[in-house]
Design a protein that fits this description.
7-stranded parallel β-sheet; 706 residues; globular; alpha/beta; 41% helix; 24 helices
Length: 706
């Protein structure tokens, strides 16, 4: 976003807060304004977009005679006997019967003794709640109820997510005032009329009113569909605007091969102690083809854990280096960078391609020498961590940037790689690598601007990790297996979801597990503890010891998730496995089985929930990360596959990325149709979209960081 747009967005934010303050609403005190801020609601526009979590449908009445199964119902009935109150200590309960055309229903209301004054024999009300049906008996506990004339005005009663100090009444009253003022009709509708007509979409003002105050389920469906469409449309439009600003008018240097370079690339392939997989060959060809073009490459190399993505990057950097160019390779941790350094040095020594490693801990004198070699062009590959983002790094001829585990770096961080080079002359080609399998529907949304190479086969010699679910009472057998593996010279990971013991959560903490294993189970073994609260130097030191074989068992939180390669690790035990997402468990499992030894992953869980068991059993059934990602999306929704909570990308409140495939397809078609508008019409359409983005998501000017 340029300075003018950022300034305009901040002006708009301030304008919205000044023009439509929450304090102007009834019942909003300083304290409640602070509580709303905790929910992300800072002005009346935010409150309009604070969507209900569910609804009570008061629009359709079901006669008691038709209530034959347990469920949520709204029905009208008459009090058939005088209500009776009972008390026991502080507990009180009111009981009475309802009748509707000779069909009865029993009511129990707990701890609301004051209702005795409102409930009279013969009174008729509309009731809403969960009716339990057991044979011919029907009963309901603590139902909501209203007089028939009041219930007839409600329709779909919205219930909102709350925090302590806020109640439904305050939120509903605030929205009633906002809608009465007509604010919902003043906001920018980003969609041109022809788009709304093509996809049968309601208007924005209708949708904003009826998402909160629909009279019936049909109005609610229309509102929800339109606003779900908007969530994806505006986010995708924002991503495309961001992307178009970054690449607009830029060219890359086309790298045309010759016979000498081709021979050396073939020699590199022949020197490998293994055969490239079909996926690796296809991905390398994809990269080489794009490096030969003037259009900047922007490719995502997406491969499962252990699929050999680094080897694709090695061939890309070799190709660039042999043609006189430089590459920049950024990875998320120092341990991983040092492992890559050994690999690159061994492969590039015969090709006369100089490699340097730059870390945050690199000494200043050594750093100065590295920067000098980069500036002169002597260094053909600069490898490192976030230390590569410093402004004083200059290149003689930077042609390629690579980010490993790309989802851990922001869009703007990745774009900053080689920024000085692109300002001076041309745009570097960009290759992004990720071992996080993304479901196809999510990839369509978040990586629409990237070309994607999928790597779905594994290097030969890799054995599938045997995965088993175990109860806590079965851990003794797992410890026996761990002892066997250690005696055979292997090493073990034990992963815990919490660092310290908690009274409120029945989780195995890393510290408790560490003490138990070293004192009671394996007192003769070298056991270490690693967790996220440690300093980076401590974690890296422990990982080095583990990789060198000096540690038998590493007890850890998920700080081991990033792709560190220890071929000697053959067994992983994950405690309270139900606490992790499927994608995360798959990433963890990928830390073992990286050598030729048979590997094992034990998932300890005593959780009886059906969803938790289904997810863990899915991990046992599937070893393919892409299948797992689709299954995880089906089982629990999109969750946080891409770390959007930290990314600046708005969460989807209405859109369901698994169920709303039609919306996903239609949004992309709508964006393509708008981009194809005549030149004299397009600027105005873009202007409306941009204003709608700012109104809906004013924080986006801080940058997107998927």
């Amino acid at each position: 976003m340029n300075a003018i747009e950022s300034h305009e967005s901040k002006k708009l934010q301030a304008y919205l807060k000044r023009k439509y303050p929450l304090r102007a609403l009834p019942g909003i005190s300083d304290r409640r304004e602070r509580l709303f801020a905790e929910l992300g609601v800072h002005n009346q526009v935010d409150l309009l977009y604070y969507f209900p979590r569910n609804y009570e449908d008061w629009s359709v009445l079901t006669p008691i005679s038709q209530i034959r199964e347990t469920g949520i119902y709204t029905f009208q009935a008459t009090i058939a006997n005088r209500p009776v109150i009972n008390r026991k200590g502080k507990l009180s309960w009111i009981r009475f019967r309802l009748v509707d055309h000779n069909y009865t229903l029993e009511v129990t209301i707990f701890n609301q003794a004051w209702l005795m004054e409102q409930l009279e024999l013969g009174d008729s009300f509309v009731f809403h709640g969960r009716v339990e049906v057991k044979g011919a008996r029907r009963s309901i506990v603590n139902p909501a109820y209203k007089k028939p004339e009041e219930a007839g005005r409600i329709g779909m009663l919205a219930n909102y997510p709350l925090i302590k100090g806020l109640n439904q009444k305050v939120i509903r009253q605030g929205l009633e005032t906002i809608i009465h003022s007509g604010l919902h009709s003043k906001l920018t509708d980003a969609l041109p009329d022809f788009i709304r007509e093509r996809f049968s979409l309601a208007t924005l003002d209708f949708s904003l009113k009826n998402i909160h105050q629909a009279k019936n389920a049909h109005e609610l469906r229309l509102a929800r569909y339109r606003l779900a469409f908007d969530e994806l449309f505006l986010m995708r439009a924002a991503l495309e605007l961001d992307h178009s600003r970054n690449i607009s008018g830029k060219k890359a240097k086309a790298l045309v091969s010759n016979k000498q370079v081709a021979d050396k690339i073939n020699n590199l392939r022949a020197s490998l102690p293994f055969s490239l997989t079909n996926s690796q060959v296809l991905a390398i060809n994809d990269v080489f083809r794009e490096l030969r073009r003037e259009k900047p490459m922007n490719r995502l190399l997406q491969g499962d854990v252990g699929s050999g993505k680094t080897m694709v990057a090695i061939f890309a950097m070799a190709y660039v280096g042999l043609l006189g160019g430089q590459s920049l390779f950024m990875v998320p941790t120092s341990v991983l960078a040092e492992q890559h350094m050994k690999t690159l040095t061994s492969h590039f020594s015969d090709l006369n391609i100089g490699v340097d490693l730059l870390l945050g801990a690199t000494k200043s004198s050594e750093r100065a020498a590295i920067l000098a070699r980069c500036a002169s062009g002597e260094t053909k590959v600069l490898l490192g961590t976030h230390a590569l983002l410093q402004d004083d790094i200059q290149f003689a001829n930077l042609l390629l940037t690579i980010t490993d585990e790309q989802h851990r770096f922001g869009v703007r961080q990745r774009a900053k790689l080689g920024f000085e080079q692109s300002v001076k002359s041309y745009e570097p080609h960009r290759l992004h690598m990720s071992a996080t399998p993304i479901p196809r529907s999510l990839a369509m949304i978040f990586f629409n601007d990237l070309d994607i190479s999928l790597m779905q086969d594994m290097p030969s010699g890799r054995q599938e990790v045997i995965t088993k679910i175990v109860k806590e009472r079965e851990l003794g057998k797992v410890y026996q297996k761990m002892a066997e593996e250690i005696r055979a010279g292997a090493q073990i990971y034990v992963v815990c979801p919490a660092i310290e013991e908690s009274d409120s959560l029945s989780l195995k903490s890393a510290e408790e597990t560490y003490d138990h294993l070293r004192l009671a189970v394996f007192p003769e073994r070298n056991i270490a503890l690693m967790h996220g609260r440690m300093k980076q130097e401590q974690k890296e030191s422990l990982m080095h010891e583990f990789i060198k074989g000096e540690i038998d068992i590493l007890v850890s939180t998920t700080v081991i998730e990033v792709g560190v390669d220890n071929p000697n690790a053959s067994l992983m035990l994950v405690l309270n496995a139900e606490r992790f997402g499927l994608a995360q468990l798959h990433q963890l499992r990928g830390r073992v089985g990286r050598g030729t030894r048979q590997a094992y992953c034990y998932l300890q869980s005593d959780h009886e929930g059906e969803l938790a068991r289904d997810r863990l059993e899915t991990l046992v059934r599937f070893s393919d990360g892409f299948q797992l990602a689709e299954e995880d999306l089906r089982l629990r929704g999109p969750g946080d596959f891409l770390g959007t909570r930290q990314s600046g990308i708005p969460a989807f409140h209405l859109l369901n990325l698994y169920e709303d495939q039609e919306i996903i397809r239609n949004v992309q078609e709508a964006l393509n149709s708008i981009k194809a508008l005549p030149h004299e019409v397009l600027p105005e359409a873009k202007k409306k979209i941009q204003r709608a983005i700012f109104e809906r998501y004013p924080d986006l000017e801080q940058g997107l960081t998927i």
